[in-house]
Amino acid sequence: MEDAVVVRDLVVDRGRRRVLQSISCTVPRGTVTGLLGPSGSGKTTLMRAVVGVQTVTSGTVTVLGRPAGAAELRRRVGYLTQAPSVYADLTVRENARYFAVLHGRGHAEADRAVADVGLADAAGQLVGTLSGGQRSRASLACALVGDPELVILDEPTVGQDPVLRADLWARFHEMAAAGTTLLVSSHVMDEAARCDRLLLVREGRLIADDTPDAVRAATGVDDLEQAFLRLIRANEAGREPAGRERA
């Protein structure tokens, strides 16, 4: 089965600044792939390129077998931006039902999406009265209501309490087990262990593209944050990180 996303030699310039520097990576189908890196590393730019709303300088991005941004992908790809993308003067339920109609879905699917993100008790509240974390979850419900094949989530757990973060990650893995592909960005390194595969980006460069266990093995440490530090330092030094001796 082909990968859900294939990025080849992607370069993005913004003015005189190179934001992405010849990125090549893949996102396997039916997995939760984490896009990790500090703020300003190029995570959002890469996600925008996958969605097809980013002007690229060179390189290619293929999504579900089609060029990124192709019209036929609009109902197959869900996208959650960092900024809430819901209507403040509508309730959570009304927002979800509106987006459900756009995807040819009914009220039941909309209400289920609201419940899945932990907002069933707040379904009748105006979005404008919600906390920042609740608004983010309302946006997430709207991104999921169309049951997309590929879901792009930009910092979906920012501002969420630990219990809800755990619930959301459990939901992401349930979706992946059912065949949905998820690309989830985060600058919180402890979320790396929750992913099936990791893309580590720093200063517009891809530092790692592997499973958490492979990253641990390559660097010789079990703590992923320490592993990332080793990868970054090795990259800056222009050498491969020293790992454990192999049998």
Automatic annotation (TrEMBL):
Keywords: ATP-binding, Nucleotide-binding. SMART domains: AAA. The keyword ATP-binding applies. SUPFAM superfamilies: P-loop containing nucleoside triphosphate hydrolases (SSF52540). Pfam families: ABC_tran. GO terms for molecular function: ATP binding. Residues 5-228 form the ABC transporter domain. InterPro entries: AAA+_ATPase, ABC_transporter-like_ATP-bd, ABC_transporter-like_CS, P-loop_NTPase. This is ABC transporter ATP-binding protein. It comes from Micromonospora sicca.
